[in-house]
Amino acid sequence: MVPDAEEIIELFRHIPVDPAWSFAECGPRQTSKLTHGYHRYPAKFIPQLVEQLFDLYLDGQNPPHVNDLFMGSGTTIACAIARGCRASGTDINHAAELITRAKATPIEPAYLTERVQAVDMDLLALDASRTMPLWPPTQALECQVPQDNLDRIAFWFDAETRDELGYILGRITAEPDARVRDFLKCCFSHILKTVSCWDMGSTKPTRDRQKNPKRPLAAFRSHLKRMMRGNRSLWKTVPPAVRADLDSYLNIQRSDARTQPVPDASVDLQITSSPYVTSYEYADLHQLTTLWLAPDTARNLREYRREFIGTATKRLDQLPMPGHIAHHIAQEMEAQDPRMAAEIRAYFADMQECFVETARILKPGARCCYVIGNTTLKGVDILNAQAFAEGLQLAGLELERVIKREIPVKILPTVRDAATGRFASCDKADARAYPTEFIVVGRKPVTSNQ
Ligand SMILES: C[S@@+](CC[C@H](N)C(=O)[O-])C[C@H]1O[C@@H](n2cnc3c(N)ncnc32)[C@H](O)[C@@H]1O
Predict the structure, then answer these.
(1) Which of 188, 213, 232 is the last residue of a domain?
(2) Can you give the residue range of the structural domain that contains 214?
């Protein structure tokens, strides 16, 4: 039986912060170990959190099946492959699928070095040709700038940078091995913000007119070196049986969280962190990657945005609220901002469908761990974690445990802009957003008939 909303609220009031889950002692070296430094990503969680949940909840299944329905930069998936698990998951974001695939694919280091050296030679020749009458290069290199998006590319990149990127992408496309190609594309995607006039300190797409961006070739070659080191440690960590048959261990795709590419009752552990309501617009934040690497989607950014849960750009219908807590939050917001109240309704209705999908794919007795924080928007307490605890139970799961953890400030922005509710930089602080967060652990009943 689902406890009533009051009971859940009361339960959360008494949960102390558990210092064992803050990982305050971990610096960037540890949090970006293995392939976790391949690509920056908003609100990515640290591998230590995933590994500690593995230690706690993976017991003896051989090999266990781990799922993440909101992969983001693939922390859960890469950790799972590193541990020899089967890993499945989805994300609606093109960038997320690319990053996750690259981060979870160990490539034999000597072979990768050889492939990357071949790319490097061509790019060095390209670089040398810049100061000679050979520029633009006449050899086989093709400059691949997506022609339909030239205006938007010109908004973010100067003409020289655009052409240099075009040649790098042309060389990447010529790479015959798909795994190496994804590795190179992930590197390409990572440097796009660095080499554009994108304001790196902003959580919104903003131009920084004072910025002196790095040159693409230098940035690409330097980040490749870092990624090669990451691949080498991943290769050493992943069990040989997984390396030899990666396709049967890694099952990820770009799709909606509500349509997981996995059979009923097949997952041993799900670890995920969902999007938040009206916080990051992932479609906007990764638009440079979409412009270059998914140009067809970039042509229709408006439709693409609407596929994201938590977006402020969704078509808003009057949706029935799944639980009392979600309903109450939306009602409170109604008095402050009816438009935001509608966004909140859409968000919790979408999340409820995700909880149902979680219940479908978990094995009886298996657990899901939703990492989620609460916040305040326009003076209204947005009790996401409590609403998730209720929603998971409405989907047929038992609430097994709630862990409260402190988030080291460097990992997440902790303030929001009062007018828009979106994350703001610290100098505009008017409300703290996620100084602590919760890991809501649900368990599928052993006797479940789902
Ligand atoms: C908080 S991030 C996940 C971060 C991830 N845990 C990591 O370590 O990088 C939430 C993710 O949900 C994804 N998302 C939003 N709407 C989605 C949908 N309808 N289906 C699947 N993924 C979605 C976003 O693209 C984003 O990558």
Answers:
(1) 232
(2) 109-232
